[in-house]
Design goal:
The structure holds two protein chains of two kinds.
Chain A (H helix, E strand, L loop, with lengths): L5 H8 L1 E4 L5 E4 L2 E4 L5 H10 L9 E4 L16 H17 L2 E3 L9 H8 L7 E4 L13 E4 L2 H10 L1 E4 L3 E8 L8 H12 L7 E6 L1 H4 L3 H9 L8 E3 L4 H7 L8 H11 L12 E6 L6 E3 L7 E3 L15 H11 L14 E4 L1 H4 L2 H11 L9 E4 L4 H9 L2 H7 L3 E2 L20 E4 L14 E4 L2 H10 L6
Parallel strand pairs in A: 3-4, 3-6, 4-5, 6-7, 9-10, 9-12, 10-11, 15-16, 15-18, 16-17, 18-19
Antiparallel strand pairs in A: 1-2, 2-8, 13-14
Helix pairs in contact in A: 2-5, 6-8, 13-15, 13-16
Chain B lengths: L5 E9 L6 H4 L19 H4 L21 E4 L11 H9 L3 E4 L4 H8 L4 E4 L2 H13 L4 E5 L4 E4 L5 E3 L4 H9 L3 H7 L1 H10 L1
Parallel strand pairs in B: 1-2, 2-3, 3-4
Antiparallel strand pairs in B: 1-5, 5-6, 6-7
Classes of the chains: A alpha/beta, B alpha/beta.
Protein name (chain B): 3-isopropylmalate dehydratase small subunit
Pathway (chain B): Amino-acid biosynthesis; L-leucine biosynthesis; L-leucine from 3-methyl-2-oxobutanoate: step 2/4
Catalytic activity (chain B): (2R,3S)-3-isopropylmalate = (2S)-2-isopropylmalate
């Protein structure tokens, strides 16, 4: 018999029906919903006069479009206010639990899901957001969908899905000092490019991932989409179970023990075959930063910006266009580049461990005068923890501003925009042209690298 | 959803590779609660200068190119899952997008909206670019039933892949939801057995 992968095991349990020469009917266990990609889906249901099939499996929050200061006041932007209000109305009409603005559990959908224990091993999880891949850290099949698919899941709890190809990315060994989960994933994307994973679902395996905390694993899986993969996942283990135990939505007592026994079966069998496999040595991975306009354009902090001769023919045009946009020259060192903004937050790096790492770096220092440093917690709970642990005070003393939860300057749908031409070292996930505001220039990096840049005012080597 | 069978049209060649969904429709235009009107902001920051004036150099604005087919460089539609990107391309008037590679979510979003993604070889893509650059009136015929794309006035054509189910849906203008609703008893049975 064919040996099964972790992905196979979860996939097979969720196939409702096979269609000849077509996709499968695929069942969804948890559906996260936010204000930007859901209104048209609810409108579709209303047009059919239908109700959400399983409101108990839907979790909603407002994150993409919310302000990160003065959240207690009405939202000034009319369109944003309307989207947030529409979400609240839709949830009320359909009996969906909503963690809207000012709710004690509000936050970025991919932060609150795991935090509250909605995300569990073996589940299938979707959301109208490509970074749904984050939840794969728990050994779940989690991926982003479009609004038509949001409507399908709200209506039928199912999607039409073809089984993707499978890839395994192995990283083994201990990371060098100062190298984080974010650096690992930026390194892998720089090797695979932003289309290297297209058509695949990725399993991250090896001792480096085994030794990561859940929050670090989430950072890695979060960025699977940036290599073109639909999602990424990591087999659950004791670290996973320890994280889950006691969280609000997680089974308790004997039920928890039974769940752990089931979850423990979720691993890739030896000799299971992947369509593609890569191996990397953790010792080879440096602290990373991006210099261009896609997440595959990453280099070590001590490296120079590649020259046209150093990239494949197919990437030469992209490189030239990116350097023109960034106003960087090929061959330049990235260290020493002056920066204007630092953004620490997002579903990639907006969790409490990220804020702790930043506090450790900035404690006793001041940010450079010309730098604006925004720290946006991933959720209300993260914000509360940051205050309780004294992190907020450390940050304030260093001149950093701790704002309120939301997606914020990761995609700049609200007022948190990086001005045209300015450089921002950002812990988010995308450095596309204009991503952080029209004309903004983004350098993706870890929270540690971002914090150091805020203090020095330039990209620093180590 | 509108039915799509054969599209015969001139096309716009957009040579850029790795065009991400933030370029197709920047996030600040995602605040609508309906599906209409996104075409106005398709490639917004490439079509317009920072001061709001038209960028005459951008291929859409040169006055030379038009049509129902967009031909774009490799890895089109990467990044966000925003279906607004597919809506914007469709709303602008395109019915077919051609590239040598598409991002997965974007591809699904296209077929769910009556927009056909056609994946061709890098060589064929280059032919499409160079022929349109030599003659903007060059036409292609995309025949979904036959799964072929042909450059008119030449012997150049290529077949493309699409799964049978999606092909049927596009040709008949059917939505997945209709199909899923038709198998409700099977979904119920699955839930009970779970």
């Amino acid at each position: 018999m064919m040996k099964k992968t972790l992905f196979d095991k979860i996939w097979e349990k969720h196939v409702v029906k096979e269609i000849e020469n077509g996709p499968c009917v695929f069942y969804i266990d948890r559906h996260y919903v936010h204000e930007v990609t859901s209104p048209q889906a609810f409108a579709g249901l209303d047009a059919r006069g239908m109700k959400v099939r399983r409101p108990d499996l839907v979790t909603a929050t407002a994150d993409h479009n919310v302000p990160t200061i003065d959240q207690h006041l009405p939202i000034k932007d009319e369109l944003s206010a309307k989207q947030v209000k529409t979400l609240e109305e839709n949830c009320a009409n359909h009996g969906i639990e909503a963690f809207g603005l000012n709710h004690k559990h509000q936050g970025i959908v991919h932060v609150i899901g795991p935090e509250m224990g909605f995300t569990q091993p073996g589940m299938t999880i979707v959301c109208g957001d490509s970074h749904t891949s984050t939840h794969g850290a728990f050994g779940a099949i989690a991926f982003g969908i479009g609004t038509s698919e949001v409507e399908m899941v709200l209506t039928t709890q199912c999607l039409m899905q073809r089984k993707p190809k499978q890839m395994r990315i192995n990283v083994d060994g201990a990371l060098k000092a100062g190298v984080t989960a974010k650096d690992v994933v930026l390194y892998v994307i720089s090797k695979l490019t932003t289309s290297g994973g297209t058509g695949y679902f990725v399993e991250f395996a090896g001792s480096t991932f085994r030794n990561m905390t859940m929050e670090e694993r989430m950072t890695v899986c979060n960025m699977s989409i940036e290599m073109g993969a639909r999602g990424g996942l990591i087999a659950p283990d004791q670290t996973t179970f320890d994280y889950l135990e006691g969280r609000q939505q997680v089974p308790k007592g004997a039920d928890f023990e039974k769940a752990v026994a089931d979850w423990s079966q979720l691993f890739t069998e030896e000799e299971a075959v992947f369509d593609k496999e890569y191996h990397y040595d953790a010792q080879e991975i440096p602290a990373m930063i991006t210099f261009g306009t896609n997440p595959g354009m990453g280099i070590g902090l001590s490296d120079h910006i590649p020259t046209a001769d150093e990239v494949d023919d197919t990437e030469k045009r992209t490189l030239a266009k990116a350097l023109d946009y960034m106003d960087f020259r090929e061959g330049d060192a990235i260290a020493g580049k002056k920066i204007d903004y630092v953004f620490i937050g997002s579903c990639t790096n907006g969790r409490i461990e990220d804020l702790r790492a930043v506090a450790e770096v900035v404690k006793g220092h001041k940010k450079a005068d010309h730098v604006t440093a925004w720290i946006v917690p991933g959720s209300k709970l993260v914000e509360e923890q940051a205050i309780e642990e004294g992190i907020k005070q450390v940050l304030n003393e260093a001149g950093f501003e701790l704002r309120q939860p939301g997606c914020s300057a990761c995609l700049a749908m609200n007022d948190d925009k990086i001005p045209a031409g300015s450089y921002c070292v950002s812990t988010s996930n995308r450095n596309f042209e204009g991503r952080q505001g029209p004309g903004s220039r983004t350098l993706l990096a870890s929270p540690i690298t971002a914090a150091k840049a805020a203090i020095s005012g330039v990209v620093v080597e180590a | 959803m509108e039915k799509l069978k054969i599209v015969n049209s001139t096309y716009i060649p957009l040579r850029n590779e790795n065009v991400d969904t933030d370029q197709i429709i920047p996030a600040r235009f995602l605040k609508a609660t309906s599906r209409e009107g996104f075409g106005d902001n398709l490639f917004r920051d490439w079509r317009y200068q920072k001061d709001g004036s038209v960028n005459e150099d951008f291929i859409f604005n040169t006055g030379k190119y038009s049509g129902k087919v967009l031909v774009a460089g490799r890895n089109f539609g990467s990044g966000s899952s925003r279906e607004h990107a597919a809506w914007a391309v469709y709303d602008y008037g395109f019915r077919v997008v051609v590239s040598s590679a598409f991002a997965d979510i974007f591809k699904n979003n296209c077929t769910n909206n009556g927009l056909l993604p056609v994946e061709v070889s890098p060589e064929f893509l280059e032919e499409l670019f160079s022929r349109a650059e030599a003659d903007p009136k060059t036409e292609v015929t995309v025949d979904l039933g036959a799964q072929t794309i042909k450059i008119e006035g030449t012997s150049l054509s290529e077949s493309f892949e699409i799964n049978g189910y999606k092909k049927h849906c596009l040709m008949e203008g059917l939505n997945d939801i209709d199909f899923l609703l038709s198998i409700t008893p099977e979904i119920e049975a699955y839930e009970q057995a779970k």
